[in-house]
């Protein structure tokens, strides 16, 4: 790797992840505007959201299967083109169906970023994979902070949602420029035999982690994507909550190294599940200032889920290679895509029932958000049990760790 500019590749990877996060945050911030402009229900908005989470796993499955043969450079070209298409098509969308298509392209671009960058970073930094993957994934919450604040200030300034989508073209063009002309590593430190990768996917441990990933991703992203609709009448600013939560997550991930070395990945995952369950339970009944308190706990809880899951697969099930890292992320996003319209229907049904009981629309929306959070709290509660089982096996797992 003597002729490879690791710092530039890592920086470009981080900026591409910022774009991924901004698509997530800004979409969360403009859901109300989209619903108003195109007369969409929460259930229909859930289907629009689900396209981003569906495009992601399709891209990670495709990227994981071809990574060994085409490499990260071509996958990042696909990501760049798909981001441009998705952003431009969203700006000029005319209704429900065009929003579905454009949002799918954005999700496909986001998945391509993960399929390329996770194994790229694991290959470049083989001696401290989980730590560097956490530092890379700093920029998912970091990008959400950028996107959430941009969405809030642009909305407050009276700028329409098209401008908010358009601002994402700036970091997209920047990461495209940074990757331009760079030399990439050639799978020097990860298992690059696709047949071995596929065979290793049948490991009971990998299947167990896939199941867990569907729950960790929905706990984190299912809550965040609906923050504006869930907390809009709680007496707290939803986008400031999102910015605060993701800002704390970014700080936590940046300093993840000592925590991971101290507790090891299974311990980190178990602790995260316990704190997440408590946080969402508190948030389901909180109003005013207590929303911020429970949100801080939520940030601490979900902070390490995503990068530690990917790092766990890379370190404890190394024979799955790039394919394993791609599929674990894809499983998380696919599960989140399935739950998006379900969460939307929870909100619609709870709001309708509350209005039928005679309360005001604002109170009905608050009650619907709290009931929906109570439902979401079930996911981390199940994770406490699953990661508890994993934690009891940590000594056996260490024997095969890279």
From TrEMBL:
Main location: membrane
PROSITE patterns attached to this UniProt entry: MFS
Subcellular location: Endomembrane system
Gene3D superfamilies to which the protein is assigned, alphabetical: MFS general substrate transporter like domains
Keywords: Membrane, Transmembrane, Transmembrane helix, Transport
TM spans (from-to): 9-30, 50-68, 75-93, 99-117, 138-155, 161-180, 201-219, 239-256, 268-284, 290-313, 320-339, 372-391
InterPro entries for this protein: MFS (IPR011701), MFS_dom (IPR020846), MFS_trans_sf (IPR036259), MFS_Transporter (IPR051788)
Pfam families the record matches: MFS_1
Record membrane topology: Multi-pass membrane protein
Domain of life: Bacteria
Record domain Major facilitator superfamily (MFS) profile: where: 9-395
UniProt keyword annotation of Transmembrane present: yes
Keyword presence, Transport: yes
Family from the record: Belongs to the major facilitator superfamily.
Name under which the protein is recorded: MFS transporter
Organism this protein belongs to: Flavivirga aquimarina
